[in-house]
Backbone:
């Protein structure tokens, strides 16, 4: 090869490397277009509570699916979520409320999951369980003797007479009473099963703190989200039923999470440690 040919070859190789770098940078900047959202409910309730959030998200053009996990075991609930994720046709934002946070933490390692949104939710690490973590920062529920009822075969529910004041004090009383009488009994074991995966360690996450939550201590929620490196939105005065009482604000956080994924803005979960502990008050859905 002549010197000129060698120089030409090197120049072409350099140009190709630069072009590939530019394409890679553009791909990273473009981020991940997310149109699919999967919503996972918590213990003692079912997916119907997501209706108002669902309506807001669908109105914005998202394809929304709701998991109806049986609450018979942690493995069963993760499996139910995985089945719904398997049916998604592209990148998906996985959203969990309360105990649903534990479910999405485990199920969120699914390859279609692009990010996680925790709504007044638990977010244990590998080897942890929410029952043990809850004892480190007890909630009002934990301090209310007899509030959690248990059947002889090991299923739990919240005393229906206390459900409106503890779980949903910011909902209309009639609605809260109806939900209290329509609870889905949850196997006690779902709260104490240690996780074997923690998706927030590697995937972008966002967290919503319900400012007046009596089921999970709001400070425990903040602890989870700060540890995950998740931007935090606090909704002052909101109860554990924040997704029902403030659906517009919750949908707005989910929408912003999808937008940030599309922009390539967020880091990589706890491993990327974005601005951990960043707090902001609730905004309107617009």
Residues:
């Amino acid at each position: 090869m002549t010197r000129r040919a060698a120089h030409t070859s090197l120049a072409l190789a350099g140009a190709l490397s630069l072009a590939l770098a530019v394409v890679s940078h553009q791909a990273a900047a473009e981020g991940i277009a997310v149109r699919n959202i999967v919503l996972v409910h918590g213990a003692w309730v079912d997916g119907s509570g997501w209706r108002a959030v669902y309506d807001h998200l669908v109105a914005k053009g998202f394809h929304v699916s709701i998991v109806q996990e049986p609450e018979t075991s942690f493995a069963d609930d993760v499996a139910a979520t995985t089945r719904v994720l398997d049916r998604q046709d592209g990148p998906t934002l996985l959203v969990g409320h309360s105990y649903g946070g534990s479910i999405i933490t485990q199920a969120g390692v699914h390859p279609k999951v692009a990010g996680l949104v925790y709504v007044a939710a638990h977010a244990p690490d590998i080897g942890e369980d929410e029952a043990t973590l809850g004892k480190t920062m007890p909630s009002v529920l934990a301090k209310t003797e007899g509030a959690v009822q248990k059947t002889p075969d090991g299923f739990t529910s919240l005393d229906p007479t206390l459900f409106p004041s503890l779980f949903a004090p910011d909902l209309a009383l009639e609605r809260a009473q109806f939900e209290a009488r329509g609870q889905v009994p949850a196997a006690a074991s779902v709260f104490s099963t240690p996780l074997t995966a923690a998706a927030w360690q590697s995937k972008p996450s966002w967290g919503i703190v319900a400012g007046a939550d009596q089921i999970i201590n709001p400070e425990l929620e903040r602890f989870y989200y700060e540890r995950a490196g998740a931007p935090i939105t606090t909704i002052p005065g909101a109860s554990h039923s924040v997704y029902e009482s403030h659906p517009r604000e919750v949908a707005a956080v989910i929408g912003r999470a999808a937008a940030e994924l599309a922009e390539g803005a967020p880091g990589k979960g706890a491993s990327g440690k974005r601005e951990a502990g960043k707090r902001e008050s609730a905004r309107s859905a617009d």
